[in-house]
Amino acid sequence: MDKTFAIQDMPSALQAHKLSNDDYKQILAILGREPNLVELGIFSAMWSEHCSYKSSKIYLKGFPTSAPWVIQGPGENAGVIDIGGGYAAVFKVESHNHPSFIEPYAGAATGVGGIMRDIFTMGARPVASLDSIRFGEIWRDDEVGKKHKSLLKGVVAGIGGYGNCMGVPTIGGETNFEPCYNGNILVNAFCLGIAKAQEIFYAKAQGNGNPVLYVGSKTGRDGLGGAVMSSDSFNEDSKSLRPTVQVGDPFTEKLLLEACLELFAQDLIIGIQDMGAAGLTSSSFEMAGRSGSGMKLYLDRVPMREKAMNAYELMLSESQERMLICAKKGAEEQIKAIFDKWELDCEVIGEVTQSGDMELFWGEQKIAHIPIAPITDNAPMLHLPTKEPAYIARVRAKNPLESLQHHTAAHSLADIARILLGSIDICDKEWIYSQYDSSVQTNTLIAAGQGEGSIIRIKENGAALGMAIHAPVRYCYLNPKEGAKIAVARAGRKCTTRGIKPLAISDCLNFGNPNNPEVMWQFKESCEGIKEACEVLQTPVVSGNVSLYNQTNTTDIYPTPTIVSVGLAKDPLNVIDSAFTKEGSKIALLGEIGEDFGGSVLEKLAQMGAFSMDSRVGFLAKNGDCYGDSALITTQGKSLESPCKAPFLAQKSCREQTTPESTFDTAIPRIQSQAQSKKSPFSSLRADLSARQSIQTKTQTLESSFEKSAENKKTTDIQSVASLEKVDSSDTAQNAKTDSRQSEITPSGDAPHIDLAREKRLWDLLLEGVESKLITCAKEVGEGGLGIALAKMAIFGRLGCAVQIALPKREMLFSQTQSCVVVETSDFAQLQELAQRHNISCLLLGEVGGEHISIQVDSSPNPQAIHLSTQEAGEIFFQSFDKHLESTP
């Protein structure tokens, strides 16, 4: 075998590739000799946490993954469920956390591109995207606040820039800000596609002598070592890892998408795999490994974007927009013709063998020879120790309600409601979702900014698909098991409040350093919570991703299990939203409100000082919120004109009576029009033409900077080329300095506990009530509790409400109790009867009507009330986020 890549200093090489001495012993046992540099790089990538799940797999095996409607569970590029009429939904959520922290625009953009490739690799056309993004203390008036504003803007631009250019609508998501993300932001991207159920393509390479083809973009040095980088923690030098961030080009990916779908329509291939993490290494080994085959690859045939690339770089580069295909023998020219038509590279670079080994060549010289099964099936599995964190006992000993009562004693319920509506956790995020095209493909029924989960119609079978994404991070910090249960339940509840029956979930498990026993305890408990919830709620896990090492220096993120629930409604005309619809309709509460303040938004705001007498009005003024009925707000003796002047109620109500259309095609535009009109009048979909025009420039700039970094990194010594040494990046060195000090904004008490059996009964009640048109709109009790749920329903519907409820304590109006939903009903008596059959509490709250949100709370010792105009509430809700961003340090 060729000696070009022989290793002279094995200890240094092992350290550079993050391989342990035990790993090395296992490699020696597998090969029967010392590995060369190419082989060591392959072991390093395939045995990384990112690719092998070596720390997490023992817990993931416990997830329920099957049901009669599940076509493909975990283990493929994405999960697949049957949605009727001969069609299937293909979906997955995945993280791109580390790259997005290092280079937010490119990291987020390629995260979107990567998850879309996972979908269309299986033969499905992507039709919808969601995202869950998390940042640090953006409100701080220092470098941390400035940094996270910049990260937010870069990530949102990257998501929008790539998704918009691909022509795939981004229809929902969630954004969260916590101190634990100061050193590690999270970018979780979800994509769903539609395919014929009998025409799903899998990642396999079988048939002795069948050709292996490389298609898509050329290979460069960007992304080199990305899988290994994503399997390590950050420190103050991590910004020097910019060369490990991939560079994406959505225009090329769009061509690749169309070329692949054209290819799938012909009987030409055996299997196909995206070149994602670890690039050509992972795609080739996984395809052959799943099929029990071997493979020969001739790396000098790989299309190269840069000169003088070597075998190590070609195997480990994570350049984007590339696929590996196992074709039927004799189909090569037909496949080439398709990719030529779309102006994409297509080269035969190898063939399938029966050896069970991966053999790599450069011309006639063999440069690597590795058995495949030990790499893919027998990667080292770690049984890391677990230990309950010391903080658990400390935070659970605290009573958040007592603290809240102290902080809010001098405030009226109306004051509290205003502050909650304008808080960064609750206020509308139009600044974010308006940068995403949510209506392209003309299937969107309900998108971001319209309440709960998002919905698209499926033209192929006449049904509607709903999806919702959620991760209750503050609950997961207090109680990882209960928090994970709530994540599954709430994601599903956001669907059922629309009339969508949840069928399956995809998960993205974001955690800290697994070498910390306390982090592994959090992970173990979260997995157990997901398992229990999925079993009871009958929503199996069909796909997912694990992202560990989300740690900077010694600070780990909170446990963040992001759950996406996907469900089905047979008739799109039966779905509902969260807006009050008709004056005089009755309002009811399904479920019972308890004292659940641990990890609540109200607790967080109190810790931020939002209710202190010195800063109460100043807090509102800084964020541009109206306060009371006055057009002026005062802070420290100064009079400030309120910026809230937009006539929230100026537009005509979208809920005028209409005659039911007789056909599906004429009814759908009405639903879409209603959904669009319920956005605030300040909303306008910001056409992303500038992003479309500038994205190539940004890509070229990034690509150029990465290539220069890679060139600086190269030396004549092949050892140095591949050692993954860090490269200085002076332009971003300042951003690497992360404030990891302990924040006072820390959840206390315990997370709400959820009765999963009752949650399932609630789901069944909601689905039956929506289908029978007994429930005309619904909103779960979530962040901000019952009071904010009612306010949002009034804001979205531009209709007020008159509500009266008896609560032992007035603060319970903002308690975040689980398994509670506010509904508008056409017949309360029938609803009450239905609720009794499902053994769910049903309480009459009041009725819809007027222009004010009026809530009478009969609490001890003195009854209190909220009387807030829908106009003022809407202005606070819709305008505050922009003010959070404008408050620059």
UniProtKB/TrEMBL annotation:
GO cellular component: cytoplasm
All residue ranges annotated as the PurM-like C-terminal domain in the record: 209-362, 745-856
Positions with biased composition (Polar residues): 656-683
Compartments reported by the entry: Cytoplasm
Keyword Protein transport: no
Region (Disordered): 655-684, 717-752
Residues annotated as domain Phosphoribosylformylglycinamidine synthase linker: 17-54
Active site: 50, 96
KW Isomerase (keyword) present: no
Residue ranges of every copy of the PurM-like N-terminal domain listed in the record: 75-195, 455-568
Example GO BP: 'de novo' IMP biosynthetic process
Keywords: ATP-binding, Cytoplasm, Ligase, Magnesium, Metal-binding, Nucleotide-binding, Purine biosynthesis
Catalytic activity: N(2)-formyl-N(1)-(5-phospho-beta-D-ribosyl)glycinamide + L-glutamine + ATP + H2O = 2-formamido-N(1)-(5-O-phospho-beta-D-ribosyl)acetamidine + L-glutamate + ADP + phosphate + H(+)
Subunit (UniProt): Monomer. Part of the FGAM synthase complex composed of 1 PurL, 1 PurQ and 2 PurS subunits.
Protein name from the UniProt record: Phosphoribosylformylglycinamidine synthase subunit PurL
Gene source species: Helicobacter canis
